[in-house]
Amino acid sequence: MNKQPSDEVLESVLQQIRDNPGKKSAGGLSGDTEQNLLAIRELRRRGLITGVFLDDSTRPGDHHGRFLYDAARLEPL
């Protein structure tokens, strides 16, 4: 699987977070959960969102850091 989310997924996730700041979690976003988690990780890395992030301890991660297991209380910055 591609470990980089597409620009479309990034924009979709960011827009959903903007529409409901502080009320969205990874599971509450429309679309593929795995792609959404990758997008959340990338948006966090770029400094565009904040929230509560839970790393996935069952996977080693990549050069961008650990993969996410879940994320909640997502807000745009």
Which properties best describe this structure?
alpha+beta, 77 residues, 34% helix, 2 helices, two-stranded antiparallel ribbon, globular, single chain
What does this structure look like?
This protein has 77 residues and is α+β, with helices and mostly antiparallel strands. It has a single domain (7-76), classed as Arc Repressor Mutant, subunit A (Orthogonal Bundle), CATH 1.10.10. The protein has two helices and two strands, in the order H-H-E-E. The chain has a two-stranded antiparallel ribbon. Helix 1 packs across helix 2 (33-45). The relative contact order is 0.24. The model has no long low-confidence stretch (mean pLDDT 93).
In summary, what is this structure?
This protein has about 80 residues and is of the alpha+beta class.
Walk me through the topology.
Layout: H1 7-19, H2 33-45, E1 49-55, E2 68-76
Antiparallel strand pairs: 1-2
Helix pairs in contact: 1-2
Poorly predicted runs: none
Share of residues in strands: 15-25%
CATH topology grouping:
Arc Repressor Mutant, subunit A
Roughly what percent helix? Answer: 25-40%
Q: How many structurally independent domains?
A: 1
Shape: globular
CATH class: Mainly Alpha
CATH architecture heading = Orthogonal Bundle
The N- and C-terminal alpha carbons lie at a distance of 29 Å
Instruction: Tell how many strands the DSSP assignment holds.
Output: 2
What string, H for helix and E for strand, traces the elements in order?
A: HHEE
